[in-house]
Amino acid sequence: MSAVKKIAVLTSGGDSQGMNAAVRAVVRSGLYFGLEVFGIQRGYHGLIHDDIFPMDLRSVGDIIQRGGTILQSARCMEFMRAEGQQKAAEILRERGIDGLVVIGGDGSYQGANKLNKLGIRTMGLPGTIDNDIPYTDFTIGFDTAVNVVVDAVNKLRDTMSSHERSSIVEVMGRYCGDIALHAGLASGAETILVPEVTYNMQEVADRMRNNFEKGKRHSILLVAEGVGRGEDIGKLIHELCPDYEPRVTVLGHIQRGGAPTPFDRNLASRLGDFAVRKLIEGESGKACGLVKGELVLTDFDIVVNTKKEFNMEMYELAQRLSQ
Amino acid sequence: MSAVKKIAVLTSGGDSQGMNAAVRAVVRSGLYFGLEVFGIQRGYHGLIHDDIFPMDLRSVGDIIQRGGTILQSARCMEFMRAEGQQKAAEILRERGIDGLVVIGGDGSYQGANKLNKLGIRTMGLPGTIDNDIPYTDFTIGFDTAVNVVVDAVNKLRDTMSSHERSSIVEVMGRYCGDIALHAGLASGAETILVPEVTYNMQEVADRMRNNFEKGKRHSILLVAEGVGRGEDIGKLIHELCPDYEPRVTVLGHIQRGGAPTPFDRNLASRLGDFAVRKLIEGESGKACGLVKGELVLTDFDIVVNTKKEFNMEMYELAQRLSQ
Amino acid sequence: MSAVKKIAVLTSGGDSQGMNAAVRAVVRSGLYFGLEVFGIQRGYHGLIHDDIFPMDLRSVGDIIQRGGTILQSARCMEFMRAEGQQKAAEILRERGIDGLVVIGGDGSYQGANKLNKLGIRTMGLPGTIDNDIPYTDFTIGFDTAVNVVVDAVNKLRDTMSSHERSSIVEVMGRYCGDIALHAGLASGAETILVPEVTYNMQEVADRMRNNFEKGKRHSILLVAEGVGRGEDIGKLIHELCPDYEPRVTVLGHIQRGGAPTPFDRNLASRLGDFAVRKLIEGESGKACGLVKGELVLTDFDIVVNTKKEFNMEMYELAQRLSQ
Amino acid sequence: MSAVKKIAVLTSGGDSQGMNAAVRAVVRSGLYFGLEVFGIQRGYHGLIHDDIFPMDLRSVGDIIQRGGTILQSARCMEFMRAEGQQKAAEILRERGIDGLVVIGGDGSYQGANKLNKLGIRTMGLPGTIDNDIPYTDFTIGFDTAVNVVVDAVNKLRDTMSSHERSSIVEVMGRYCGDIALHAGLASGAETILVPEVTYNMQEVADRMRNNFEKGKRHSILLVAEGVGRGEDIGKLIHELCPDYEPRVTVLGHIQRGGAPTPFDRNLASRLGDFAVRKLIEGESGKACGLVKGELVLTDFDIVVNTKKEFNMEMYELAQRLSQ
């Protein structure tokens, strides 16, 4: 295989804070190593429609601190089909682009894997707030999302404690409870419900009531959306203890916004640069991750077929400290 | 009437950011002028149940920057009835408390008005995020709530613009659209719906669609809860333009939390001190407000029977600038 | 005089948060009323060098929340001289620009006044963090600067109280102590030194020591730069009480940065739109201000020859509450 | 050795954000495992003066989000001497306290090491913003300090870019440049000076000038205090390029304040709990750290005699991306 000379970068799936920092790192690192770098607008949709443009140092100026993604993102049904994937590969070949960096989540990796099998050298960067991607300890955007949640929980505590009320906060996390877990531990949430751990609703209700009887002026239950809707859980608790009526807050898309934290910016910068260096070294079909402090590559085939392990130790710690 | 020697302070109704700064000002100003100052826990409920305690400089140390209220708040059905009000007046008389500062909204003022008519000298401070109290340009907490909303809208813009989507954000304001208006103008919201101004849903939907056709990458509609639920408005818009599906975010109680802004702290400090000075001067049955930069007193009878005027000029400005 | 058809906007002097919101308002309001609108880069320097370009709705998209000024600012010695002023007037006339909005402080107003006298219709907007401009209760940027200072003081309190130390914080304000006053009241500073009020250093030192002897764990002195350098004041205090060594923090230019608060954005939006409407009505040579809640015009000749009045009442309140 | 039944916790040295979260974890984890837990006020000074008090769940309520340390910190010359150390050990023995958790930096570890050698079981937690402690990837407070710095640099960029100026920002880090490195990478600083890497001032000056000539509107140089004072570096640069006058900002103690980030709270919670569990298991004389994602113990003797390794890879990355 010949040396990489032209690379492109796209963002795909739900956006996350730090995607811009990752795009910046890919562009600047690529230019540093003498490559031509292209941006693709609106993910795989833009790729199939040849919405591709050259990027230079200025294209990524003043974006490291911005939420969202200047490359935008979009769903693309056409790319789901083999035909669409072949079209994408052809467009890249016609333009002489011999390396592609895809920033996104699980679905985005599957797309990059397909392109790899069609002969396009691809690298994946974990861009999603959910932290649901295996073979990386943190995804780009996760730390910022946890900050947003903890900030919101702090605000709720002010008013909950003034009125001696309890609150249920529904946060993102369809398959992975990490946002609930990390934000729950950091904000001292009394109860954390995640998809990875089964729970007994009667025990949850008893626990909330006990806290109050012990004199706790307020109580927060954090629930990952994968467990169920906050509103439904509130109703269940109310049924089990009729004199008890928790308020429900659904944080929704604000979890995806805001300036990325330094942690996310640095994670994104390191991973973006790593992806470029590995493409230059001839690697392909791999997801980039930070595992125990080290930058590592893992085959897409492995990543997309593995479920992220849940940190049971941290979960138990949260329970221990919120007694 | 004899000179005031002992005063008490309570917070009532929904809490708001800056209530603590107001409590601090009442306590410190009272002590400065040689009064004894008492705190009442949980609003009128605590008053009726004699949950009253002396406060000194230390009681209000390190609270100026805290959301919520250290005096807590609570609903009190008993105080709604004449019997409860008489009981409250008696308790104050028995304790020799001859001045009461009530921090809260419209309902709290009505209670203070009743006590005034029972011979207790009372002063009201406008503590509510809604800015729905007349005879003051700003209520304590309003500026902070607007900050919380604008911060959330900024976060939503990041992700909305990445995905070229539209968003509906439901904010507080049952009778008064000021949070929606001020936050909408400050965040450049494309559409603002408030209870004070009628609207035509077809026009709203057309406007949102037009914005997109003109190339605007995202669009925010801010709706005060008094207009209707964000979700219902989203459905209506979707019915009117079936290919158009705005996301709905309900900000809820986080609007009531967070450290008060300097603006709210200073407003609270000025009003709290003013209330004490006016009690000393022999005033009673009055609401304290900041009107066009001046501290003013207005009879409770007038305040509770007046509807806050809406700033139509600012509303039109918001429309002009979000074209 | 004929009707205004083309207007231009520039920012001048030290930048302040909210200048972008003001530029946006001028541009959007101008376009709304059917005018052509131009931007001038780098203040009067850009004007003299004809660095002028047309602006449309897109030119001011996504800037309302940004600190700094997209039009930039610069010192311009050339414009200080009559010759430079005439050149500027000629350039505007050649381009058919018949109205100019200048956003800046006192010096910027003087320049706008000169142009007015050369027959160019000009309007001034108070863009400076110092709040040192008379005939407006607030300047654009002041509220944000106060927020930045209060945030920094909060951070210092954490560490000062852990170590039982005192802190001196030097803030901006050469001739006007409003930043020190408003931030000091809002953060509960024990001492506030402003250029408008004389003080006795021995009393200041005694007060700081007394606080400690009374058991206060930390003490903050806020000093406006117009009073003197924080370091010098620290040394004086140390000489007067040798066992006493306050830490000094100079906040510097961070006070000028950060996203403008909603308050500043709305003030800027209202004033920017007001300036455009008044130019259309034929006014010229006037400063726009918000006085007691009302938008007002005042002759430049009056504004530049008046000293801002100091709010002595608020200063005494701060003293009363920090006892 | 008998089983641990009573433990105490103190904070020592410069305070850092997250110390309160660590104290909370030690107390709650200790109580969870059936121990009695005591707090020691003002570090080793309070220990020697027997300023020791029992702590329960309530003692650490509502502190997880607070900067500073409720246990305060202080220098203690007396404890530097063997006599003082023996007195401290005796006081602990008299009270039956058989385990001590010390939260602080290098100097605090040396004290804990001495007590360990006098037969007191001790554990150390890395509480310092500098990240200068080996055998842990992160110290408690470091992430928050980096956030504070990046926030300040963002504010400076606004105003620097408006005026096309350059800025030098002096940050903490006497022996360890990690704050400068992580904050510099995250904020896209053009130049980063750390004690671990030698530099050529002429090259630095050339680089800053080149950036300007290439059209960069602003430039930030981050310097760790261990390299030299920001002001001196500014003067050197000015001498080397006389037409070039960078502004200098010294962030100072605000870097130590503010609410700890979720990252720091969770790090503190995990380490605090770990220390307690290890004391129960009979360990002593060890520093707790998080190394490559794992909680580990390292002998104080090793920790205090090792210099933290500098992340050269990340430094080179920062250079690559800020070209």
UniProtKB/TrEMBL annotation, chains A, B, C, D:
Activity control note: Allosterically activated by ADP and other diphosphonucleosides, and allosterically inhibited by phosphoenolpyruvate.
Catalytic activity: beta-D-fructose 6-phosphate + ATP = beta-D-fructose 1,6-bisphosphate + ADP + H(+)
Binding positions for Mg(2+) per the UniProt entry: 106
Binding site for ATP: 14, 75-76, 105-108
E.C. numbers: 2.7.1.11
Keyword annotations of the record: Allosteric enzyme, ATP-binding, Cytoplasm, Glycolysis, Isomerase, Kinase, Magnesium, Metal-binding, Nucleotide-binding, Transferase
Domain of life the protein comes from: Bacteria
Residue ranges annotated for the Phosphofructokinase domain, each copy included: 6-277
Function: Catalyzes the phosphorylation of D-fructose 6-phosphate to fructose 1,6-bisphosphate by ATP, the first committing step of glycolysis.
Protein name stated in the entry: ATP-dependent 6-phosphofructokinase
